[in-house]
Amino acid sequence: VQLQESGPGLVKPSQTLSLTCTVSGDSITTNYYYWSWIRQPPGKELELIGYISYSGSTYYSPSLRSRTSISRDVAKNTMYLQMNNLTPDDTAVYYCKIAGTNYWGQGTQVTVSS
Question: I need a surface site. Which of 34, 43, 65, 100 has the fewest CB within 10 A?
Answer without folding.
Answer: 43
